[in-house]
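User: Hey, my collaborator sent me this sequence without any context and asked if I could get a structure. I don't really work with proteins. Can you help?
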Amino acid sequence: MKKVVTFGEIMLRLTPPAMQRFSQANSFDVVYGGGESNVAVSLANYGVPVEFVSRLPKNDIGECALMEMRKRNVGVNHIIRGGERLGIYFLEIGAVSRGSKVVYDRAHSGMASIQAGMIDWEKVFEGAGWFHWTGITPALSQGAADACLEAIKTANRMGVTVSTDLNYRKNLWNYGKKPGEIMPALVEGCDVILGNEEDAEKHFGLHPEAVDVTQGHSVDSHAYHSVLKQLMEMFPRAKKVITTLRGSISASHNSWSGVMYDGKEFYGTTTYQITHIVDRVGGGDSFMGGLIYGLLAYPNDDQKALDFAVAASCLKHTIYGDANLVTVDEVEKLMEGDASGRVSR
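Assistant: No problem. I've predicted the 3D structure and written it out in structure-token form, which is a compact way to encode the shape of the chain:
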């Protein structure tokens, strides 16, 4: 299996222990994570050769982030050093009717100050078969958007499959450009697109034909079909367009499933009831990691690839931290219907 390359920012995550509120915290638990690094960790756990590309400050905190990637068997040979600092985000984990909160502190980070030309993308993509990026990276700065576009164009030229998770983050787009001015040129070069109705609306002005895509605590998957069709019409290079379907009963109980469209047929999945969420951050990243693995491991079975992605991300909700630390065997066990959680001896 050829290597997968992901590109984006890894951050220091600071979380009050024991589900405390920020105002209660006298200490914070430390985790390192970010959308693209989380995907890389998932793939490494599945045995896929993977390289994470980023820009980290040359200081002890940057070294800690680098060590975290190495610990998870993620390649770091093309990470460059520079910038003032590592980005930080603070996470207050919610419970029951109290939602989680995120506060970003990532201005002037190494990735926010990256520029086109800093990374030798032809060297990065030697021996690669897949490149993944998310909408978080071009939201950081014009330089990050330019570097991302440079990577996509190089991948296209070298015959590398390109995927994106659109990942709209309203609190990040603050450098004077709107998503609609930046994202279309990037997504035009993508073969696989993951996004929900909010991503489609905020980035491209697309709306589902149904007025309400949710029905109370449940989610009507058919209401999302029009969004997937519109995305494929807008970006004809795409061979597969996917959305995750999350029904939020409470902060501790979500339903979870997915839909894929290949231009001819829609694929749906089992809906999982995740009733005791440990940590939902990274749920979409774990889905994307599972999807990339599934499309590579089961190249002639899109249904199985989608089932793998949903099962993998279902399991992520049981794991503290940003990254999904599960194996292929554990995911396939859940795919086969064993959700018992019995002790393995």
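In plain terms: The chain is about 35% helix and 20% strand. You can pass these tokens on to your collaborator as they are.
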